[in-house]
Amino acid sequence: MRHPEFLSNVSSLYFETSRFGHLLCGWIAGHESEYMETLSDQEVMGSVTQLVRRFTGNPTITPKRILRSQWFHDPWTLGSYSYLAKGCSVQDVENLMEPLPTSRSQAQPVHVLFAGEATHPCYYSTVHGALLSGQREADRLISYYSSRDSSSPAKSKL
Ligand SMILES: Cc1cc2nc3c(=O)[nH]c(=O)nc-3n(C[C@H](O)[C@H](O)[C@H](O)COP(=O)(O)OP(=O)(O)OC[C@H]3O[C@@H](n4cnc5c(N)ncnc54)[C@H](O)[C@@H]3O)c2cc1C
Q: Model pTM?
């Protein structure tokens, strides 16, 4: 990927004026965002300046400074949130949410449950998807322990 080509995956630019005055916020995704993270602040600023000048038709606009995320290379995040890439389907999301051991295995009990935005088949990449997925897995545990307790004889709690 040549240097300014990563800008082809900038999906939106909008002004955030309510809190910060003259601030322009841009969104970038895919491999282009990973590539962007390898560039210096100076290189990103140069490319973004070209983009803004081209977009506005004003050749004198010059950002004072930039602040950009590097979540892909941050070992504590390894990215921002999921999306269905070309060739993926909801089946992939459903595979991600399947507890271990899987229902095809006869092994009991459930050992590992998966929640988080990437496991919600409709609302992946959102906060409400993350919340609903947590509730779904909590319900799964309740249902698992309720059925297990009702099938075993009652024990004294003393
Ligand atoms: C810039 C931005 C803007 C967004 N705007 C919106 C919006 O307007 N509306 C909306 O609905 N959603 C928005 N989202 C998406 C939303 O924030 C996420 O979908 C949601 O926070 C995902 O929640 P989660 O619990 O699935 O994952 P996360 O919030 O990512 O939580 C995962 C946690 O696991 C921790 N972790 C990772 N690896 C390990 C490990 N090995 N050991 C221990 N802990 C680990 C991480 O540090 C993190 O705390 C936005 C996201 C970004 C980045």
A: 0.77
